[in-house]
Amino acid sequence: MKTLLVVDDNKDILSTIKMLMKREVDEVITSSTPDSIPELLRRHRPQVVLLDMNFRATVNTGNEGLYWLKEIRRQSPATAVVLFTAYADVALAVEGMKLGAVDFVVKPFENEALTSVIKKAFRKEKPKKPTGSPHMLWGESEAMTSLRSVVERVAATDANVLITGENGTGKDLLAREIHRLSNRSSGPIEIVDMGAVIETLFESELFGHVKGAFTDARTDRPGKFETAHGGTLFLDEIANLPYHLQAKLLTVLQQRQITRVGSNTLQPIDIRLICATNRDIPQMVAQGEFRQDLFYRINTVHLQLPALRDRREDIPAFVDLFLDKYARIYGKPKPQISDEAVCRLQSRQWPGNIRQLEHVIEKALILNDGEKLMGKNFDLYDDIAVALPSGTLEDMERQAIAAAIKQCSGNIADVARQLGITRQTLYNKIKKYGL
Length: 435
Description:
Layout: E1 3-7, H1 11-21, E2 27-31, H2 37-44, E3 48-52, H3 63-75, E4 80-85, H4 90-98, E5 103-106, H5 111-123, H6 142-155, E6 161-164, H7 171-181, E7 189-193, H8 202-207, E8 208-209, E9 221-222, H9 224-227, E10 232-236, H10 243-255, E11 257-259, E12 266-268, E13 272-277, H11 281-286, H12 292-298, E14 301-304, H13 315-330, E15 336-337, H14 339-346, H15 353-367, E16 372-373, H16 382-385, H17 393-407, H18 412-419, H19 423-433
Parallel strand pairs: 1-2, 1-3, 3-4, 4-5, 6-13, 6-14, 7-10, 10-13, 15-16
Antiparallel strand pairs: 8-9, 11-12
Helix pairs in contact: 4-6, 6-7, 13-15, 17-18, 18-19
């Protein structure tokens, strides 16, 4: 039997859904009190639960809904949960999906849309897997599978997204993938490295300028907000934006219009904003280094990319991808790789993450003359890829950088390439660790 449990404190909604779903399922159980959920799960064993997010008129945060979602997942892991919210809170719905919900429906709902979601939940359809760009490899790790499901739902909205993760985890590729999956995919995606923008040119770079606005402004020039119109604007390394410039960015995001430098004409903008950083912005807010209001503005949906050491099962797929890529680039036959070599690569900490792994595979392929890569082909890289498991993450990072500096005889450009980070980031870390 197909049994649906609907839990909502609005009895009119309960009656409506019962009438709507009676032709689609064998039994519809309704309840206006979430406290009844454990007993109803035991008694009726529903395959699907449609769960309201808010049950108290004075509390509209959805926290009670998240609590009961966890309880349902704990008591009946096989039961599919669809969230029901009247507040169209994308961030809250995403949080629910991270906790195991299969979908969400926003009130007021359309009958056909609700019916479709419930029917899919009964079939327990997994979200359609995006094909991805040639450079976006999702892998099969639990962390990335969960992230992929959330990305697919978020991409279809215009919600601002903040991507966090260590250097080399692929934040830029994830931003491109979100754009590709979005309704704006036919529009442009503009990428700005906020750490590379000169402060004095910040407004010109993002908002544009008119002829004669300053020395060397010989022609009108649109900024990134304008050229991203109808598409996506990706601000990488957003935490590097100086505090005194953050207010200017916030104003544009709030007003959704820009003024070119040297002009008094307001121009509307239509962009989807994605930001990324490897820094702890909440900590920066607490220390007065990042505006809290800007943080809230860019952080509608937060996506955390896991470090490579937390998705080791994906390393063989990356190795195959990079071997294929660089065999084509260098015109060499693609070598096989031994199980021993793969195990060695999987046992390393990879402080530079995917970018570092890519450089190691590239160099191993260049130096290899045989048909197969063996564990010994990676001996040169062990001291910069491995870290003491007993140390903190900072200890591991410091050791990896020190080893790379020694191996590269102090050549900063080579060290940065070896670790898969930018030279500016390397300089900052050298200063931080006193190396």
